[in-house]
Amino acid sequence: MIEDKQPQRTPISELGEFGLIDHLTKNIEIKNTSTKYGVGDDCAILEYGDKQTLVSTDLLVENVHFDLSYVPLKHLGYKAVMVNLSDVYSMMGKATQITVSIAMSNRFPVEAVEELYEGINLACKLYDVDLVGGDVTSSNLGLVISITVIGEVEKDKAVKRNGAKDGDLLVVSGDLGGAYLGLQVLEREKEVYKVNPDSQPDLSGYDYVMERQLKPEARMDIPKILNELDVLPTSMIDISDGLSSEVLHICTQSEVGCNIYEEKIPLDPTVISACEEFNLDATTVALSGGEDYELLFTINAADYDKIKGNPSLTVIGHITDASAGTNLVTRAGESITIKAQGWNHMS
Amino acid sequence: MIEDKQPQRTPISELGEFGLIDHLTKNIEIKNTSTKYGVGDDCAILEYGDKQTLVSTDLLVENVHFDLSYVPLKHLGYKAVMVNLSDVYSMMGKATQITVSIAMSNRFPVEAVEELYEGINLACKLYDVDLVGGDVTSSNLGLVISITVIGEVEKDKAVKRNGAKDGDLLVVSGDLGGAYLGLQVLEREKEVYKVNPDSQPDLSGYDYVMERQLKPEARMDIPKILNELDVLPTSMIDISDGLSSEVLHICTQSEVGCNIYEEKIPLDPTVISACEEFNLDATTVALSGGEDYELLFTINAADYDKIKGNPSLTVIGHITDASAGTNLVTRAGESITIKAQGWNHMS
């Protein structure tokens, strides 16, 4: 939020596409032995021994997925990588490579693209991922970021969404709702700024929810923890669209039902207090907020002893027969049918 | 160019993101044994035995890479896949999977997306490629298509750009310049249409160049032919930005020079006659036109006998020491330094 008033602005046309790609990728260090050849040819070359390869892709569009009026480009780059890595971790894999394609209008100078790549490169460094290719192109359409992630997993150890069984426990990592509240804070400050551009944003006390929104961390640690605990989930998904949307994916694909207990949903104290301030129901925010990038998974009930007491993991309910439906059991003991209320970018 | 006057128009919001993805991917058949699991989870699962994996990605942006006023969506989908497959063939690989991400504004109805996917699915079918994942999102920014392709190649048989040696022969597949001329014809008809919307486009005699522009075919056959002829190129690249830009990539990365002979550059007779009509120099068009998606490669001179007489392959010059520079030898015997004049979307 603090800006250099006289930043350097090099027009992208000064470097051209190839110059810009060279410039952005010159310091890349290869970290994964599966990366045989990275940026610089028509394709990257990867090699996996006896492992299986995971691939996922996500597209982020300006003013749909992010608002540059309050998202610093470095954070945006970092988050764009997290969104993708999260998909690999949610199958119990290890993310190993990404490709990054960017379309941006000429209103962005080279320095802006550098900032974006700073975040991308930092994410790669911290998560041991190699940037192996991509594309940079102009756009009269604002900024678009498309990332594809590649990962590896032991043969037949990838955990899909369709393996949940009646009696399994529903487990979630971390806590929920923070990212959505961070967005509310940012939106509020944007409105204040529109009315009074001289105002300084008041973000004190919102550090946690702001960080959840602007700089989320994908849960690379959870597959490791589960491996160490010798727990192989029966199904798994990452929470990008909100708990309700994700649990419905698991239930639909596994052909099962579920009971989630409202009182078990993990919430950070700052999320609860921010909900009070914004007059929002914390459970609704956790169910529908999205963008938390935590992991939701099911385990055999016999594995409960292995995970109990782990501070990163919370059992929030259990899987039932499909005929029992998908239910939220409220604090008052009432059963409410869970409906998808995830972000629907199409509507 | 012939439109159904009362096409069906289903708003995308009627299906929603997940509904739309299900709808678009429900008929996908898996063709590659390396595809263990396709669309429907956080990641696709791939498995490669002793082979190496190739990955490449390309981003196509409306009004930068394509103009929907004359490109039918089905053709666009087909071409978007070709652009990516070409990168795998240009490393002597076999393309096996793609992911497709699309951002589009609400002005597109479901039927438009279906048309786009018809082209994508047709390309996958004809090129034995599995569509294994993707993302569909809205955009207030027009249409953006991001495709990532994955392929395989025998261990250490991937041909990069950096292996050309002094004395190697420069070879090109097919013929050049057609795609650029197809674009000129389409642009001309667009101008005519603007002045007189009742005019019928006059495209007779332009079938070949129109097809080169609107429905290019990636050269899947060339790696096969070279394998059968027992020729492993020393370097290889696909011609997306024009011959001059691509040969400079090879020369720069291989640290060599080259002589290309103007009289050897393969041109289709319809390209030559269209050049005359448009008052364009055919050699310039071949050097700088781009979008032909032919392959340019270098072979050891000892392999010449193996490829000579093959109707798909033309020797256009040879590699020299770097100190000799990168030259076009004209019909008059003059040497002109080759400069990159490829499409620069950044300028």
Description of the molecule:
Two copies of one chain form a homodimer. Chain A has 347 residues and is α+β, with helices and mostly antiparallel strands. The first copy, chain A, is built from ten helices and 13 strands. In chain A, the strands form three sheets. Chain A has a seven-stranded mixed sheet, with helices on both faces. In chain A, strand 1 and strand 2 form a beta hairpin. The radius of gyration of chain A is 21 Å and the shape is globular. At the A-B interface, helix 1, strand 2, strand 3, helix 2 and strand 4 of A face helix 1, strand 2, strand 3, helix 2 and strand 4 of B. Strand 2 of chain A pairs antiparallel with strand 3 of chain B, so a sheet runs across the interface.
Distance between termini of chain A? 31 Å
User: Tally of extended strands of chain A?
Assistant: 13
The biggest sheet of chain A amounts to: 7 strands, mixed
Give the SSE string of chain A: HEEEHEHEEEHHHEHEHHEHEEE
The domain count of chain A comes to 2
How confident is the prediction overall: mean pLDDT of chain A?
Answer: 89
What fraction of the residues of chain A are assigned to beta strands by DSSP? 15-25%
What structural class do the secondary elements of chain A suggest?
Answer: alpha+beta
- CATH fold-type name of the largest domain in chain A: Phosphoribosyl-aminoimidazole Synthetase, Chain A, domain 2
